[in-house]
Amino acid sequence: MNKELWTGVESYIDQKLVRQDKALEQALGDSKAAGLPGIQVTPNLGKLLMLMAKMVGAKRILEVGTLGGYSTIWLARGLAKGGRLISLELEAKHVEVARKNLARAGVGEVVEIIQGAALQTLPRLSGTFDLVFIDADKENTAEYVEWSLKLSRPGTVIIVDNVVRDGDVINAGSSSPDTKGIRRLFDMLQNDSRLDMTAIQTVSSKRYDGVAFGIVR
Ligand code: SAH
Ligand code: DHB
Ligand code: MG
Questions:
Q1: In this predicted model, what pLDDT tens digit does every residue of 72-89 receive, in sequence order?
Q2: Which of 149, 170, 167, 151 shows the shortest CA–CA distance to 214?
Q3: How many angstroms does the Cα of residue 209 sit away from the middle of ligand 3?
Q4: Torsion angle in degrees (nearest 10) through CA of 110, 211, 201, 163
Q5: 30 C-alpha vs ligand 2 centroid, how far in Å?
Q6: Residue 134's pLDDT is what?
Q7: Do 180 and 174 meet the contact criterion of CB atoms below 8 Å apart?
Q8: What is the average per-residue pLDDT within 105-131?
Q9: How far, in Å, CA of 86 to CA of 132, rounded?
Q10: pTM of the predicted model, to two decimals?
């Protein structure tokens, strides 16, 4: 097993099942052209996010970490009629690129991007969300889950990207701030009766990583 094979299988799944449209392709192209890092979700994970939003009939979605809006487009396309999405992003440049990508994809009207550090902007939000996708700085992931719980109801879906980090998640002595942040999240979840979570490992054209999923009890 190797990355070449995983990339081949990813392409196969994309061709057969995902078939992303021009707007998603252009969002990737323009994000790259603007110098944004290519760390967005893979197309098949993006589509899974859309399907999960549809599965729960999401009318309010919260995303932490917009980048160029690639995952945002997928999630917004999963919104129920009349639904809205709020996405939080630190970097002004990312917000600018994302707003253009979202408008071109036809979801600009249903998405609000709030610029700033999420720990500063989360306290401004109110109400409850049906689905939360956490994909920003990994150091603060546990805090983002804590905030998500405040903005949740029983049944709210919480999804956390990048919880395996090339397997470094099981390295208790890791010096990586990302790994430390993710391990803090797992430690928190281990004893947290408020959430019912699982995590899956992923191979793809990107690094070996994983995604955690669950619902608020
Ligand atoms: N969800 C995107 C990828 C997000 S990459 C997609 O799949 O398409 C992570 C993003 O989190 C980057 O754009 C980064 O600028 C942003 N970020 C980093 N620290 C942050 C913070 N403290 N608050 C909000 N966003 C942050
Ligand atoms: C990386 C991947 C991500 O999905 C992310 O949100 C941040 C960083 C990475 O591969 O470095
Ligand atoms: Mg990610």
A1: 999 999 999 999 999 999
A2: 149
A3: 9
A4: 140
A5: 18
A6: 99
A7: yes
A8: 98
A9: 10
A10: 0.98
